[in-house]
Amino acid sequence: MPGIDQGGRIVPALGGARREVTNTVETVKRSSQVVERAVLLVLGMAATLLMCTNAVGRYAFSTTIVWAEEGVRVMFVWGMFIAISHAFVTNEHIGFTTVADRTRWTRIGSAVVTNLVLAGVGLALCVLGARYSLMTGAIRLAGSNLPTAVLQIPGILAGGFWFLLAVSRLVRVALGKGLPDP
Which helix (DSSP H) or strand (DSSP E) does residue 69 occupy? Predict the structure, then answer.
């Protein structure tokens, strides 16, 4: 039996199995967003505390934490790739929605172009990042002695994720199921 959503539109009733899958997917999405935000919060707070501690040590005690700048850089790189991936998943990065959402055809065109670009960038980042990491990933950072791969791995992982996300969205658009409501 159909129901009515919050906007007053009639929506078809979902079968029990389909409803369970939809609920599971939504639960996984919400859980992953909570984890993403928690990781970003921890990385941001840790980087801030490390920078402040290093600055106080430098100016008040004439000593520094040797690995502090590299640690902050690693936290920043990982945080940015997590945040960018979150923006791609939630479509928060799209700034032309007023034009793209005008008609069904502009939504289809926007979805195809956006996801083709995302797939290309993701694949390039993943493949070229992996090649570069194989060449230079074992070189050690001066302050922490960590391999430079710690700065390259998040880009490789994010690129692979972006590529898979774009391909799955393109498949959904081709099947007529991947268009957001205007």
Answer: helix 68-90
Residue 161 token pair: 């994720």
Sign of CA dihedral 78, 81, 87, 93: positive
**Structure confidence at residue 182 (pLDDT):** 46
10-26: b or e for each residue (b if 16 or more CB lie within 10 Å)?
Answer: eeeeeeeeeeeeeeeee
Q: Is 166 helix (H, G, I), strand (E, B) or coil?
A: helix
Report the number of secondary-structure helices (H) and strands (E) in the chain. Answer: 5, 2
In the beta sheet, which residues pair with residue 140? 147
Q: Which residues touch 77 (CB under 8 Å, ≥6 apart)?
A: 151, 154, 155
User: Does the pTM of the predicted model rise above 0.85?
Assistant: no
Q: DSSP secondary-structure letter at 66?
A: T
